[in-house]
TrEMBL record:
InterPro entries: N-reg_PII (IPR002187), N-reg_PII-like_a/b (IPR011322), N-reg_PII/ATP_PRibTrfase_C (IPR015867). This is Nitrogen regulatory protein P-II. GO terms for biological process: regulation of nitrogen utilization. One of its GO terms (molecular function) is enzyme regulator activity.
Amino acid sequence: MSEKELLICVLNRPEAVEDVVGAFLEIGVTGCTIIDSKGMGKLVSQDIPIFAGFKSMFSGVRESNVTIISVMDSELVDEVIELIEKVYMSFSEASSGIVFTLPVKRVKGLSVEGD
């Protein structure tokens, strides 16, 4: 069984999720979970009145985000991140989102040929 990683990607432009997932399919990533999410800046600046004065600290706060979670072969991770930046935007831009991976030690229920 090849090594796996959990990729977590938060997109601050939810309208881009279809393009990103479509690109995943093109390179062989056949499964992911998509979650509507809200960042801390949104919560602090609007939903907790005592912190409303901190709104200016959270420039570019979005109404909502989309979080994509996918377990994939470690060999695909670099290609997937490059693809996300090509289809979506570079994560070096302010308030663009975040992508990171974590090693996966054990997986059950993941149907992948050859595993």
